[in-house]
Amino acid sequence: MASREIVLFHSALGLRPGVRDFAARLRQRGHTVHTPDLFDGEVFDDLAAGARKRDALGIPALIQRATAAVADLRADLVYAGFSMGSAAAAVLAGTRPGARGLVMMHGALLPRALGVEAWPATVPVQVHHAERDPSVDADSVRGLEQAVRAAGARCEAFVYPGRGHLFADPDLPDYDEASARTMLDRVAAFVASV
What we know:
The chain has helices at about 15-30, 45-55, 60-70, 85-95, 140-150, 175-194, and strands spanning about 5-10, 30-35, 80, 100-105, 125-130, 155-160. It is an alpha/beta fold. The chain has a single domain, classed as Alpha/Beta hydrolase fold, catalytic domain (Rossmann fold, 3-Layer(aba) Sandwich), CATH 3.40.50.1820. A six-stranded parallel sheet has the order 2-1-3-4-5-6, with helices on both faces. Helix 1 links the parallel strand 1 (about 5-10) and strand 2 (about 30-35). Helix 3 (about 60-70) crosses helix 4 (about 85-95). The radius of gyration is 15 Å and the shape is globular. The termini are close together.
């Protein structure tokens, strides 16, 4: 198995124990994982409260924080993120030279919506979301797949049963153990393959 260096961005709930746990499980599989805190240590149990924090900081500031978090890291990173964090990961994977791959969990946006005019042909993408997650737009997922494939890169999209948004966090009501385990296995296999 190839060992990779991953940057894993948290959701609008902040750098919760569930994010740290996911990172630890990837480390157990031989990868180096960085978990930048874009929220200055604040964590939330409610998405509305987290969204207020996100909006108070503003998307440009969050992207600046994400960019600063990777400034001293090597170029050939795999970028990954949960929900809001998937947008930061996508911006970096789409614009920072040398990216090895992108993993978007519980969220998917079109590259142009993120300011990425042309997806790099060398950056494969993997997307994960629940089938009836009200926070994920199926058209955006299909559009992302089309844009990545049109650029010549591989794109995988996995859909899980249910409607839970952050189903990989064991401390949240949306937690689905089977889906979380399957997603972790798929992410680890993807990271090892890029």
